[in-house]
Each structure stands twice: as C-alpha cells, then as structure tokens.
Amino acid sequence: MTTTDSPTAAAVSPPPRAPRRRSSGDTERGFSRIFRWIATGAGALILATLAAVALFLLLRAWPAIIASDEEVSAAVGRIPDGTSLLEFTGPLIFGTLLAALLALAVAMPVAMGIGLFISHYAPPRLAQLLSYLVDLLAAIPSVVYGLWGFIVLAPVLKPFWFWLGDVFGWFPLFAGDVAATGKVLATVAVVLAVMILPIITAVSREVFNQTPKLHQEAALALGATRWEMVRMAVLPFGRSGVISAAMLGLGRALGETMAVLMIISPGFLVYSFEILTTAQHSTIASFIALDFGEATGLAVNALIATGLALFLITMAVNMTARAIVARRKEFSGAN
C-alpha cells in the first residue's frame, strides 16, 4: 500500500513578496517635505539674525543710554559739555531723514518715468539696453558716487543753487547763505537720488510689465490714448509695487555712508531746513563712519546707540511700507 505524505508536510511555503516599488508620488512628497523644512529654516535664520543684530545693538548701546549727560559729552568730545545722548542724536536723525526724503522726492518721478518708458513706450531693443544700463548703476560702489558728487556734481550744481537761493530764498529749504563750494545737503540729495534710482526703476519696471494685457487692451479698445491707458490700467495695478520700490530706495538712502561723508561738512546739534547752507547737517551713518575709528570706551557705546536709532528708523519704514502695501493690495487689481 502506497502511503502519501500528510498535508502539512506537503504544504508549500508561499513565495516571497516582491519589494514595494517606490512610486513617483512618494518621491515628490519626500522632496516637498525636505524643501518645506529648508524654507522654514531659512525663514527662521532671517528672524534669528535680525534678533541677534537688535540684541547686539541694544546691549552695546545700553551703557551710553544709562550714562549721565556729562559722561556722554566727555566721551564723544565733539559736542558741548552737558549734552545728552538724545540731544546730539536728534539732529543726526533729522539730517538722515531730511536727506533721504529729499533724495526720494527727486528719484521717484524720474524712476517711474524711466520704468514706464521701458515697459510701455520704448522699442524692444532700446528697452533692453536701457534696462541693462539702469541695472548697471546699482553695481557702482558708493565711494565712486561720492567722488563724482564731490569733484564733478558739486561745481556743476553750484550756479543752480545760487539761482534757487536768489529766487526762492523766501522758502525755508532754500533760505540762508548759499555755500560757495556747492557741497551742501542739496547736492547730497541729488547723489543719493542717483544711487537709489536703479532700485526704484527696476522694481517699478517689473511691476508695470505685470499689468494684465486684457486690462490694457480693454482700455485701448474703448478709445483711450496710450497715456490714458497707463493712467487707468497700469498705474492703479502697480501702485503697491511702486510703494514697495520707494521704501526700498528710502532704506538705501537712510543707510548711505561714504557718499554723504565725502560731500558735506558735518554739522552737529542743528535742526535746519537750509539745504543750501554748509555745516548744517549730518547723518547717522556718516557720523559713525567719521568717528568710529578713533572712538574708545563710552564713545563707542554712544555711536552704537545712534546706530540703534537708525536700525529702528529703518524697521519703522519697512513696517509702514508693508502696512501700506497690505491695505492697497485689494485695490491694486492684482486679485
């Protein structure tokens, strides 16, 4: 009698399962997760750097903030005895804001005009050439702008400043004795305007180029001229971007050092609107650059305190710009 194996003995073990192949979706999700962590880390790094800079400025400026007026005036040396930190920082803040706002007032109309010409009026080849030239202005070092303003621009503008003083001397900005050298805050404002021009122009140009073609074609189809199309479609759409460009340029003008230092003769403890008079103004950045090399002890803390003031001003300007852009976004046509 033939015997057969038992079922348990004859059972065959199941074949091994094939390894699960990684799908393209899993790979994409993995890359997406890695990119998210990298982006989050980059954002956190920016915040940490900003906080570290603010903490450094506050800690190093604190000895000057809590020092007495006599100690501050004795340490700085270039101010009268008994002058407090606020009393000599206030005029520096005033001069910084005055120079930056004058530069912005000069640069904004020119930058917007260049941006509109490049984006909507110039032939393609000329527009491309002008774009390269404008971007090239941003690569010029500030010390070169300072030399140009000191050697070339100041003598050229001197007759114009005398004319402004003679004709519009009743206006506070052009009152006072016009400096014979031309090296005044008005010249600084023109140099700063040229320096911030490429920033404002480049951003404005890109914003104007993003205006929807349908908006422009609809305006032209309704019989609008080129300028009316720009006024009704392009400018409202790019308003928030132009404001952002202006704030970027203002931030550059607020922190400029060498160009200001090389042109004007610094003045201290003076609140003056007379931009054609010499030795009336100074800025925070130029004041720090002029005195930091020879400062020791509490004088270093006082200079860092002025730098803290400039840091806070720049933050306030950027926060104001963000608030304006956020309020104008829904009316810009971008939505």
TrEMBL record:
Residues 93-321 form the ABC transmembrane type-1 domain. InterPro entries: MetI-like, MetI-like_sf, Phosphate_PstC, Phosphate_Transport_Permease. CDD domains: TM_PBP2. The chain crosses the membrane at residues 37-59, 92-118, 130-154, 184-204, 258-278, 298-319. Keywords: Cell membrane, Membrane, Phosphate transport, Transmembrane, Transmembrane helix, Transport. Signal peptide: none annotated. It is found in: Cell membrane. Residues 1-12 have a biased composition (Low complexity). It is a multi-pass membrane protein. Pfam families: BPD_transp_1. Residues 1-27 are annotated as: Disordered. Belongs to the binding-protein-dependent transport system permease family. CysTW subfamily. PANTHER family: PHOSPHATE TRANSPORT SYSTEM PERMEASE PROTEIN PST (PTHR30425), PHOSPHATE TRANSPORT SYSTEM PERMEASE PROTEIN PSTC (PTHR30425:SF1). NCBIfam families: phosphate_pstC. Part of the binding-protein-dependent transport system for phosphate; probably responsible for the translocation of the substrate across the membrane. This is Phosphate transport system permease protein. It comes from Myceligenerans crystallogenes. The lineage of its organism: Bacteria, Bacillati, Actinomycetota, Actinomycetes, Micrococcales. The gene is pstC.
